What does this fold into?
Amino acid sequence: EFDQTHIKPGQYVMIRLPSENFRVLQLHPGQTVNLGKFGSFKVDDILNHPYGYTYEIGADNKLSIVNHNYELDNQDEPVSELAPHENNRELVDDSSVQGLSMAEIEELKKGGLSGKQIIEKVKTSHSSFDKKTAFSKEKYLKRKQQKFLNQFTPEPIGSAELIDIYLDKDASRIQNMSEESLALMLSLANVRPGGTYLVVDDISGLLVGAMMERMGGEGLIVVAHDNEHPNLDGLRYMNYSQGLIAKMIKTVNWLEFFEPSEIEPFEEKTTEELQQLKSNQRGQYYRRRTRYNDSVTVQNLISNSGFDGLLVATGLHLASLIPRIIPAVGGSRPIVMFSETKELLTETTLVLHKDFRVISPTILETRLRKYQTLPGRMHPHMTSRGGGGYVLWGIRVFPDENANA
Amino acid sequence: EFDQTHIKPGQYVMIRLPSENFRVLQLHPGQTVNLGKFGSFKVDDILNHPYGYTYEIGADNKLSIVNHNYELDNQDEPVSELAPHENNRELVDDSSVQGLSMAEIEELKKGGLSGKQIIEKVKTSHSSFDKKTAFSKEKYLKRKQQKFLNQFTPEPIGSAELIDIYLDKDASRIQNMSEESLALMLSLANVRPGGTYLVVDDISGLLVGAMMERMGGEGLIVVAHDNEHPNLDGLRYMNYSQGLIAKMIKTVNWLEFFEPSEIEPFEEKTTEELQQLKSNQRGQYYRRRTRYNDSVTVQNLISNSGFDGLLVATGLHLASLIPRIIPAVGGSRPIVMFSETKELLTETTLVLHKDFRVISPTILETRLRKYQTLPGRMHPHMTSRGGGGYVLWGIRVFPDENANA
Amino acid sequence: MSFLDNRDIIQEGDLVLAWISRGDVKPITVRKEQQLNTRFGIFPHNLIIGQKFGNQIPSVSGKGFIHLVAPTPELWTLSLPHRTQIVYTPDSSYIVQRLKIRPGSRVIEAGTGSGSFTHAISRSVDKRGHIFTYEFHEPRFLEAKKEIEDHGLADIVSITHRDVCNEGFENPMDYSGDMNASAVFLDLPSPWTAIPRLKSCLATDRVVSICCFSPCMEQVIKTVETLRKEGFQRIEMVEISSKRWEGHRNMVRNLDDALQRLKDVKERRLYGLEIRKEKNDAAKKRKIEDSVGNASHRDSAVESSVSPVATPSETTSEAVLLESVKHNSSQNSSYKGYNPWGRGLRIREGDPNYEWRSVSRMEAEIKSHTSYLTFAILPPKFELPNNE
Amino acid sequence: MSFLDNRDIIQEGDLVLAWISRGDVKPITVRKEQQLNTRFGIFPHNLIIGQKFGNQIPSVSGKGFIHLVAPTPELWTLSLPHRTQIVYTPDSSYIVQRLKIRPGSRVIEAGTGSGSFTHAISRSVDKRGHIFTYEFHEPRFLEAKKEIEDHGLADIVSITHRDVCNEGFENPMDYSGDMNASAVFLDLPSPWTAIPRLKSCLATDRVVSICCFSPCMEQVIKTVETLRKEGFQRIEMVEISSKRWEGHRNMVRNLDDALQRLKDVKERRLYGLEIRKEKNDAAKKRKIEDSVGNASHRDSAVESSVSPVATPSETTSEAVLLESVKHNSSQNSSYKGYNPWGRGLRIREGDPNYEWRSVSRMEAEIKSHTSYLTFAILPPKFELPNNE
It folds into this structure.
């Protein structure tokens, strides 16, 4: 179930391309996948392989496993020196100096030349290539490589990849949450196998999916939501079985959460009564019984402060929501919530400061900064995505009534 | 007036010490300055020198100019390699291995040993010194150097040093403003020689002082304030003459600003009338006339949108203040304000968005990050001061009445 | 209009920034016979002449407006989004501050690049000071030279076409006399080759400040090494990070509203089921999609789970239902259930029918790195007898 | 209580964090006969046994309280402010995420350091996984080993006293069998010497992830070089910056209040002057200090400029004045003028008599750098015939 080491039929996978773009695919045996300008491949050719190989698509869509993807051909050449006069002084950069047209290059590709061979051809046909500085040479090659290397790498879809998928598609569906903010939440909330967590996930199931990764099939996630059903759309990419989802996730809407009387009553039938039912009625009975039992389980957790942690990423107003769900959380257990904007968490900490049931409410901001690691040219990326969100962390306690008088 | 290149009698100066602390002194000829454990020196020994020399205090408080302050003795040794096993494995670091007591060191200092000589002694008497890694050796030496080098560097006090002074003393007096935020304000507000600016400076005169640096004696700064007199305490450190201050700075309190009728009327006297006055009455008359003329000047600027820029760092509520002073600012002139917290500027931009007299109101956050530049050990400082503030920048325009209907 | 005066009225020949939006600022030199074409229409220059700087004016067709903005170094930089080698305002403002560039300062700059930093410092040095700027790339040199002249900066800026790393800084074009620079800004790929060539051009009677602007860490390492060797002191490397924020309003979605809505949904579902029962399930039941494992994205899970059960137009008895829950609704027509936050409607940010919180949002793409800034000073030469 | 269970009630032998304040968290192992001494008084352990985790309890004297908090890796790290080699939560949480450390993961860590990261990952690997950690510094090794045992982690953590850079990772203490690690975390001064020694300890049937944690850029440069040479792919170096914010309230000082106050001051000054005139200037005029050039700092310029003119106690006629402006005042006794923002008074943040705005403030000192994080992966070994 949790072995995401090998590619299995029917799974969703992420296909990383040299351009640093990706595709998300469900792999059906027998099918052929078309990667556009990168070529096509047969699903059967990668099924049951371990994840993480990099394939090059050759002539006739044959795949070969290659070693150095995303790396520079000339990495062993000494380009780490920025010689003083490698400064493009005389270089005029217009398209006329590029010896090969795109059409010609496409021809070469169809002719079965490998990406490396094409890049070699591009180099030799580029009339001012030798005038370029080592720096711009490398940039140029990297750019070409991204265009011409018919390579791809299948990767399993975990929470990290789910973030990539949503940031690419529609970041608002995960409230622009960054991987570092998600990671911080999971650690601060002490998510681990066997725990029982109360979760508000209005971010397409990203939080729930990430927790399932960390819990390895053991423990319970109770998802509270403000619709008839929670929206956990993202989970499907993560290849969890319906059985595992049913075992680990229980759901409760806020009405049921706060007004248990709204839960539909359920009457246990005797064995005799059951035998009299038609088989489809019996199925319905069992489903209703499961639903009822789940409701009882959840209600017991709520009323007995039974949760080992509270994790919240919601569109609801936190400052009014959180104080009302604190009682469900066990003593000394973490309370962690996310917001895209700091102001909503500031408001919430000010509320919690006056409420002695949470100590040390703190807003944390965590931000990743990526570097370029080309030899001799180490520097942070020039641009990066803004946002990523903020995390509020506190610990649920039972105040002594004499302490805060 | 603006020549801050040489040390002159009566000036305030900043004395930087190797510990990276500093002292602020007013230099009076004939006096002796006591720098505590770093020794003493005679003011006359540095008067009329250019700023920027580093002096070492020798025996009998004699000064010698030295070259390499704040730099490491062993900078030319190849310590840039982090050899794999320089890792303090066997080093036990307790005080017993330090061969010289602080008392013994003080004795050496009194004996007239130079800082370098003392450090040499400390090194040889430190029993586990040779076991230290190159890294910790250097750290150790640096630390010792800071303690024992009797060196100091006099520097002129400009806006940068004024920030250091207040951050050291009481950061709230300058609303925790960082040098980078101040610099950003000055640039965005287009402060330059000959300009006429409206300024709200509730940060001890830091903003006004910094503007005077940039204006080089030309132009006008009108300081609006909410007391009977503005608090521009910090200006005195910057060694501006009273004449220059009187020439460049006019003040107006908010009551006079908004209700010109509150300005005390003034009646011009004829030459004959003046001759009849006693000399102290005449002096008073001229002072009152100056004050009145200043008021008229300021009122004309206010009512004719005569200001070339608005710079604000105040404790007043920006969202209600700014819309009321916009009319005083000329067309296409910048409006720049500072706040320690972003929320107050957010509120203000939301007000300005609905007010079409300011385009492109934007909140900017600028933060400095300092690096350690020891050879082979380049990294950002491990800790740094939080805060520094935020800047709101917009451009004053005259909206077309048909445009925003 | 040059960069160095403060006029109010636009004259022929003035440089004016036509402000269409923050990301779309067009610099124009106003000429009677010319016109500016934008997606908001045509703006003839002769209608611009005589306007006040800051005025908002309509296009000929009246379908759009621009603001007429006077250039400043910062706005000029903003209007150059597609040029390379721009020193942006958060960096340039700090460099000006740290190099203590003030009226009277004499500054060396290499390379000139886009001229953005040249403009920034020309505002500060005043006619009492001077700027010596060097550019080795001929097309860029020519462009910058023209701009300096057009912008009225030629008196205070000497620009030289030269590779300072090889040829040094002495004897700049159009300038005779001692350079005596007190501030140096090097934006070069290899500042360590230029630094040793500086000395003869620097003032010796005062502290000289230098800033080297390099994107890569390896450049910094070499620069620091060279600065040490050349006797510079107080070497400090810093980075300026800057972010832009915008004010927004975030709708408050109260838990009580959510509870009310869930009650309403439930009520309507039960009511709908009853009606249906009466009608013997005449209407076909649409399958409620399982929200987990559903391949298509939905804006909100609620529409798909609610609508199959009680669509207003489905039965005539809906009218009764509609009445019975109408008191919850703020929209009278086509009632789709209690909708406290206007889901599915186009709500203007800040709509007074809803409750809002002020929040700030970062720009979508931030400039996470420009360059490392290495500062140092050179103390004055020792001219005095050593006191010892 | 170990780090791996979820009990509610404190038992003898449990590790409990006595939470005095955020900056003062004392780990105690509860023993019947012992007691905890704090500045808030004495807390005997036998009164702690049987309490619920999360309870707030008073000291014996009742003059202070502590909260009884269960340890988590994050809180444990917080309680170790004075140890070196701590991997703080913003870094460690991201590393766990990036290295995909999950139940069943087999992780190599060197060095163990303070054990903070060991604790963080021991929560995640579960009994299905394993941690191999190495520490070369003997005192640190012994301390960490004891802690791992005391905290109930010995089953899943093998700690070895060894210099992995020289001696490699094979055959860890207390562990026989294949290591087959799928994740590696190196917090060593020279990771490039350890990386080539890893291969025989790594899983070959799956992707292996590595993270090298180094404070200096030069270390990163060497590490990246070595990772390339050793066949690692997708090399990426990142930095995690993190800030802590606190909610506060900022008083709203309205311009209208300022105007009213200035009017009040003026009125009172004129009134005072009149009274004085009548009294023939009997009271000595104190010199109004010139605010510029005044050597002493003042909290607010107003006190010194107002009070010399009209101090309430100065004349009997003040009573009249006092009455005439009383309507402006919220403080009836010892009226010192219209004081809308409570200057000179001790105002509690959020006092409902004043208007406030919610704001957030950064901590005074931020951790601006911990280390650079260099990530890379090693793809599975090729076991399949090449398709070509």
